Amino acid sequence: MKIARLSLQQGPRFALVDSATGDFLVLRDDPIFGSIDMTGQRVEAHDADLVSPMIPRSKVFGFLGTYTASASAPDSQISGARNPESVTNPVTLTTPQSLDNMGVFFKPNTSVIGPNEPIMKPAWATGIAHAPELAVVIGRAAKSISPARAKDVIFGYVAADNVYATGTDVVRAHSFDTSTVIGPWIETDLENVSHLAVRSWVDGAPRIVGNTADLLLTVQDLIAYASKISTLLPGDIILTGTPLGDGAINVGQRVRVEVEGIGSFDNPVIDE
What mean pLDDT, rounded, does the chain reach? Predict the structure, then answer.
């Protein structure tokens, strides 16, 4: 099931994506807290104005250094094919000392935007960069859970572009408005996210290419670790990290991000 969020005359509304036509079937309620009950309103795909499929109730949780050093693939692998000789087998980190070496950060819900909305470079930033990522939408409250229980708190997955400012402290780098792009919808039917292509393009040219098979930890490990740092609430988003690559972007460019099995979106880059 794909759950989108549309900008309509009556305000933002959640909608299901009709798998047969690509049209959107408007829902009466927030699907995390309510039932999947359709209003009968249908929005044709070419008329749909997609916005961020979820605005977190409290926070976006991010990780640094989650991919192997060999995770960045050559441009020839943009189709998703991978050369097994070009990657190192992922290492599973299981000790608290190893987990504590992962970089972590928070992003406010005010940083979140959706497809086609402009990414605004802050006036104070010397430069900005982007990071395509698989992201998790949390469906129920969780505190200090085990990796084995992590699947129970997942509502679905989205593609994400974690935009950040370069040459500044971690708070300013990750907190500015428009620095978290998610979309195009929430995919609730993904059973296995351990081998998904994660990639980006800038002005149509391949830029970052990788695969979740190169994550040093499983998605369940990351969710469990995040829940030990801060209580996770329904609607919170967890960014799982980005493959290595040149993420620098400039005003006037257009960035496209795609996660296999979910979908893609793109955004223009403008001055604040």
Answer: 87
